[in-house]
Amino acid sequence: MLDHIAIQVHDIAASAAFYDAVLAPLGGERKKQFGENISFGVTGHPLWLVPATDAAPARELHIAFAAADRAAVDGFHAAALAVGAEVLHAPRLWPEYHESYYGSFVRDPDGNNVEAVCHRP
């Protein structure tokens, strides 16, 4: 249903470096830069980082990225640790969601809850 989403960030360079690192294990990469705006994706431009329009703290957003397998979730987590992200939840099964839900949750530089999830056994 979604074609793309844009999130406002306070430091484009810091956020772009974060998403460069954590999306690489999932097959994601920078796709386009349009002025200060930067897009990421595997194909297309589903995620855009755009400069925040004011200094007020942003309201927390939850973004979950699909991982092909559990190793990709583990790679996402390792990349997040390497760039100093706050870990909300290390990779593990979340049977309360469903028996094969394997995910890791971290905070991006703007405090958003960013997840990598694999739904396969």
TrEMBL record:
Which residues are listed as membrane-spanning?
none
Which CDD domains does the record associate with it?
Answer: VOC_like (cd07262)
User: Which Pfam families does the UniProt record give?
Assistant: Glyoxalase
* Organism superkingdom: Bacteria
> Which InterPro entries does the annotation name?
Glyas_Bleomycin-R_OHBP_Dase, Glyas_Fos-R_dOase_dom, VOC_core
SUPFAM superfamilies linked: Glyoxalase/Bleomycin resistance protein/Dihydroxybiphenyl dioxygenase (SSF54593)
Q: Which residues form the VOC domain?
A: 1-119
The protein depicted here goes by the name: VOC family protein
Query: Organism source for this protein?
Result: Streptomyces sirii
